[in-house]
Amino acid sequence: MHQRTTTPRSRVARSRIPLAVSASALALALVGCGTAVASDKPQARTNTGPIVLENCGRDLTVPSTPKAVVGLHPSQTELLLRLGVADRMVGQAQTTSLALPDDVAKLATDIPVIGEASPPSREDLLAVSPDFVYSPTTYEFTAEKGFASIDQLASAGATAYVATGGCFDRRMTGTVDDLFVDLQNLGRIFQAEDEAARLTDRAKQDLAEVQRTIDGERKPKAAQVFVDGTSLSAIGAGVEHDIMRLAGAENLYDPKDPAFADFFAAQITPEALAAKRPEALVFAVTDDAHERATREYLRKTFPDMPAVKNDRLISIPFSDTFPGTLGNIDAVQRIAAGLYPEKSGSQ
């Protein structure tokens, strides 16, 4: 099974986004709506002409290979580091939301932190004079929040790139494959096609291995939920739904349900979830304490549910559901191992 090298639980995010439970989370998400490193310090090639591509419904022109790059979330910073861009990164942000995997963390040691728990302010971002800014969602470019907008960055000579799955019009229909669009685009932008192809091939191999392992098996009935205190939400659309599909779940919530017509999550009652009698429950967690609290809530609230009785409570780091991250692949593998424990030893 594919695993990036990390310390235990280091990939669990202490996220700024409680997933679609509070009003602030709803507003935020609507706006937003192991691979090895090739060497200790891989180098991206330089001196290319303009690259023209489409990103979030807009034509994007990158005039030359960027030389002053910012990753606005560790998931994006990780991809940049794996593509060999460490020597040209002038900023990283939201660093307390997720620990970088150990095998690339050392490459980020000297990259200035311009935002810890949140995206950088407009002033802090522009102060490092970036020419390329890579973000997981459009939220990080919300001027009303005090962040630099895409237009403001363009006026300062910087190209803003949003992870494909984090584009506003993709949040409800995003798929794990969106990551491969980003890798192809970034490979072109940084003249790192070989590195991008290697990451893509490895991820596709990992997904194919999951499919080979579970092929022909009966799909367990499963639901993905998010628990915030005693508030319970079901997840039924977006990349989260696609992750469940690829992991081999018979998802009890899906985009065809009217409850998910406008948003990928919907608050539900415990009675409604209990009536579906899921054989497995998948839930995203922001840290160890959140995982413990969620497990306690599920066991106390649903003692007769098959998922609880058979201890099929599968946690995934909240950060692995972020658009455009290698964590999406990790989430597929982790959920599949939980859904098919008798098969997981062969992955």
From TrEMBL:
For the Fe/B12 periplasmic-binding domain, which residue ranges apply?
68-343
Q: Which keywords accompany this UniProt record?
A: Signal
InterPro entries per the UniProt record, alphabetical:
ABC_Transporter_SBP (IPR050902), ABC_transptr_periplasmic_BD (IPR002491)
A Pfam family of this chain = Peripla_BP_2
Superkingdom classification of source: Bacteria
**Which residues are the signal sequence here?**
1-38
Homology family: Belongs to the bacterial solute-binding protein 8 family.
> Under which name does UniProt file this protein?
ABC transporter substrate-binding protein
State the organism named in the record.
Answer: Leucobacter iarius
What high-level taxonomic lineage is stated for the organism? Bacteria, Bacillati, Actinomycetota, Actinomycetes, Micrococcales
